[in-house]
Structure formats: structure tokens, C-alpha cells
Specification:
Layout lengths: L1 H14 L1 H15 L15 E2 L2 E2 H26 L5 H21 L6 H19 L8 H28 L7 H21 L6 H7 L7 H10 L1 H23 L1 H7 L6 H20 L7 H27 L4 H31 L5 H25 L6 H44 L5
Helix pairs in contact: 2-5, 2-6, 2-7, 3-5, 3-15, 4-5, 4-7, 5-15, 6-7, 6-12, 6-14, 10-14, 10-15, 10-16, 12-14, 13-14, 13-16
Length: about 425
């Protein structure tokens, strides 16, 4: 009797949305400790074939990340639930070994280690996402998951700055930062392993999220290709801005006149993440899938409009810290909306055989491929303007383009989904069903 009672209490604990939120947030938060601390260093005075060493490191890791996203379209959509935890553990361990080799191998040849570091880490998001999609409170859970990479980006840099301040060399700092995150990583992965599958009510509300075959992926994509591509390209623009803002945060803050401090990165990203979490998490309370889908496009539109406001405010003398907060909001609102709401509710509306992980990896593969192209363009055509000026101009032009894409996507799905509904009603009526 006592054992049964204890088992029931544990089941209730593991089924609590807060448990899944903490587990997913913590696992992905800690993953950044194996990925981003190196960006806190400047790696100045080193170049290879005319390419700045830090830019080369960023490109190398991003190439690994991009390869992971393209490969992940198949892996994360097909992997069976029982294999997810083992895959997460193995991928993180491999990434840490690559950081050790990064410290061991001389510059600039150790850049290949960051490529191999990014390769496994690029798969982890889809595996973690699979634990929280297809639930009644998925928006809130994924918003929390996305908040982890907003906050962790700043925290991981803070850890990197802290280690450099203790006298650790730039080459060995990344692997030591990974060791700092190792213990918490194991704790949160253990919590994630205890998260139960979606309930019967979850499946009835959102549809079952089963492993997909190649045929399943082709059928779903082709049916909604123009709209999906519209979302993907909005995500591409947000990814470009987010990645530049994250990877060159030290240089951008310096351009604004701020000194490099660990607290600076963490404070700004914490404010952005809490704001985005509150706005995007609201969608979990919207029961109607179509209304929630429209809401996600609306807040994406607002986010892109905020970028235009920030650009205007900078030219009018806006306070610099406020500027970075606004840019963070403008970038992360559409970025997180795609992760947490748009694809989730699209699947729930259509009831098609698909997963958010599958659609997100299409978006991520395009997004990170675009970022590599941007980095190479910067290399091939060295800018004459400061990085801050280039970044602000990107906010203006990509913000305008993103607004156009959002409007197209909204009208496409308004027509497509309405047409699907009419077709379903017509067929059901002919067969004698009450609809």
C-alpha cells in the first residue's frame, strides 16, 4: 500500500507541467554551456588565409550545426521515444570531447574541433522538443524551452568571461566551461527521462505525434509548401539577426560604449526572455487552434515592427541598454513564435501526420545555412562600417522583409485552411455525416 501510494505521488509529480518545463529548460540551458562560452573571447591577433580567427571559429561551429539540422530532419522525426535520452547523453559527451581537443590542438587547426562540436549539439533541440510537443500546454512548455536559449546564451558568455578573468586561456576556457555545466546537465536529463508521454486528452486535442517516414514528410510538406516556406523564411531572417546579436555580442555592446562584464549579458537576456515567455506563453490559454495560430503570426508581425522602432529610436538618441532590449524582443518574438506556436497549432488544425521537430528542423537547416552564407559574405566583402552600424541596418531591412512575409503567410493559410475545411465538410455531407 505504501509503495503504491508513493508510486502514485511520483507519477503525479512527473506528469506536472512544471516538471516537464524545468526538465526541458534545464537540459537545453546546459547544452549551451558546451556550445557558446567560447564566443565570450575575442581571439584577437590571429587570422588564417585573411579570415579573422573568431569569425572562422563561428563559421566552423555553425557548419557543424547546419549539417546537424539537415541530418536532423530525418533523425528527430524518425527516432523512437525510448532512444532519445541515450542519444542526448552521447551527443553531449562527444561535444565535450571536441572542446578538449580544441584546447589541445594548436590554432588555427583546432577550428575543426568546433565544427565537430556543433554537429552533435545541433541534434539535441529536436530531441528535447519531442518530449514537450503535442500537449495541451505545449506553447507554455516550448516557450520555456526557448527562454532557456535566450538566457543561457548570456549566462554561458558570463561563465566564459568569468573563466577568462580567473586567468584561464582562451583556448582552454570552452572545455572548462563545459565541465562546469556537466553536473547540472546530468540532473536535468534525468528529470527529462521521467516525463511521461502525452495523455489521451492531449492526443485528442493536438493529434498524436508519432515517428514519421520519408513519405509522411513529403506529403505534409507538399500540401502546405508555400505557407511553410513563408514561415521558414521569416525564421531565416530572425535567425540571422539572433545569431549576429549572440555571436558578436561583445563587439556590439562595445560599439554602444559598454564595458565587457558578465552581468551585462545575463541581465539583458533575462529581461528579454521573461518578456517573450510571458507573451508567447499566453497562447497556451487560447483553446481554439486557428485563433492561436493567427495570434502567433500577429506577435511575429509586432516583433518585426519593434525592430523598425529600435532602428528609429537609435537615430533619435534612445538609451543604449533599452535599444538592445527592444532588438532582443523584436528578434525573439517571431523566433520563439515559430518554435512554440506556429507549427504546433498548424499540425493541430490540419491533424496531419507531422511533428514540430520535423518542421523546426526544416526551418533551422535553412536558418543556419543562411547564417553561414552571411558570415562568408562578410569575409569575401570586408565591411568598411563598424559591426554595430551593419547590425542596425540589418534590423531595418530584414524587419521590413519579414513583415511582408508574415502578411503573405497569413493570407495563404487563411485561404488554404478555409478551403480545406470546406472540402472536408462537402465530403462528409455527401457521405451522410453530420458536420
Amino acid at each position: 500500500m505504501h509503495f503504491t501510494s508513493r508510486s502514485t505521488r511520483l507519477q503525479r509529480l512527473f506528469s506536472n507541467p512544471a516538471w516537464a518545463l524545468v526538465a526541458a529548460f534545464g537540459t537545453y540551458f546546459c547544452m549551451y554551456g558546451f556550445r557558446k562560452p567560447y564566443t565570450a573571447a575575442t581571439y584577437s591577433g590571429v587570422s588564417f588565409l585573411g579570415l579573422d580567427y573568431k569569425t572562422m571559429l563561428i563559421i566552423s561551429q555553425t557548419i557543424g550545426y547546419v549539417l546537424a539540422k539537415w541530418i536532423g530532419i530525418k533523425i528527430v522525426s524518425e527516432i523512437k521515444p525510448v532512444k532519445r535520452i541515450g542519444a542526448i547523453l552521447g551527443l553531449i559527451m562527444f561535444a565535450e570531447v571536441m572542446l578538449f581537443l580544441f584546447g589541445l590542438i594548436p590554432k588555427p587547426w583546432n577550428a575543426i574541433c568546433l565544427l565537430l562540436n556543433g554537429l552533435p549539439l545541433g541534434i539535441i533541440f529536436g530531441l528535447v522538443l519531442s518530449f514537450v510537443e503535442g500537449r495541451k500546454n505545449t506553447e507554455f512548455l516550448i516557450a520555456g524551452l526557448c527562454a532557456s536559449f535566450i538566457v543561457s546564451d548570456g549566462v554561458s558568455k558570463s561563465v566564459g568571461v568569468m573563466l577568462l578573468g580567473w586567468g584561464v586561456t582562451e583556448q582552454w576556457m570552452p572545455v572548462l566551461a563545459g565541465l562546469i555545466f556537466a553536473g547540472p546537465t546530468l540532473l536535468f536529463i534525468t528529470m527529462l527521462a521521467c516525463v511521461p508521454a502525452p495523455s489521451v486528452n492531449d492526443v485528442a486535442s493536438r493529434s498524436a505525434r508519432e515517428p514519421m517516414t520519408g513519405k509522411d514528410r513529403v506529403i505534409f510538406f507538399k500540401k502546405y509548401a508555400p505557407g511553410i516556406l513563408g514561415i521558414v523564411f521569416v525564421y531565416l531572417l530572425a535567425t540571422l539577426l539572433r545569431s549576429v546579436r549572440a555571436d558578436f555580442a561583445v563587439e556590439i555592446w562595445a560599439g554602444l560604449g559598454y564595458k565587457q562584464t558578465p552581468q551585462l549579458f545575463t541581465q539583458s537576456e533575462l529581461l528579454v526572455s521573461l518578456s517573450v515567455l510571458a507573451i508567447v506563453g499566453f497562447a497556451a490559454f487560447v483553446k481554439n487552434h486557428q485563433a492561436a495560430f493567427d495570434f502567433s503570426l500577429y506577435i511575429s508581425f509586432v516583433g518585426l515592427a519593434i525592430l523598425l522602432l529600435a532602428f528609429t529610436g537609435f537615430n533619435l538618441g534612445m538609451e543604449k541598454f533599452t535599444l538592445m532590449i527592444l532588438i532582443g524582443l523584436g528578434v525573439y518574438l517571431p523566433y520563439v513564435a515559430v518554435h512554440a506556436i506556429i507549427f504546433e497549432r498548424l499540425i493541430a488544425i490540419t491533424r496531419g501526420k507531422a511533428t514540430v521537430s520535423f518542421l523546426m528542423y526544416i526551418a533551422d537547416s535553412v536558418g543556419y545555412t543562411g547564417y553561414i552564407a552571411l558570415m562568408l559574405l562578410r569575409y569575401l566583402a570586408p565591411p568598411t562600417a563598424p559591426l554595430l552600424t551593419i547590425f542596425l541596418k540589418m534590423c531595418l531591412f530584414l524587419g521590413i522583409l519579414g513583415i511582408v512575409l508574415i502578411i503573405f503567410t497569413y493570407w495563404y493559410f487563411k485561404y488554404k485552411l478555409k478551403n480545406n475545411e470546406q472540402t472536408t465538410t462537402h465530403i462528409a455531407g455527401r457521405q451522410g455525416y453530420i458536420v
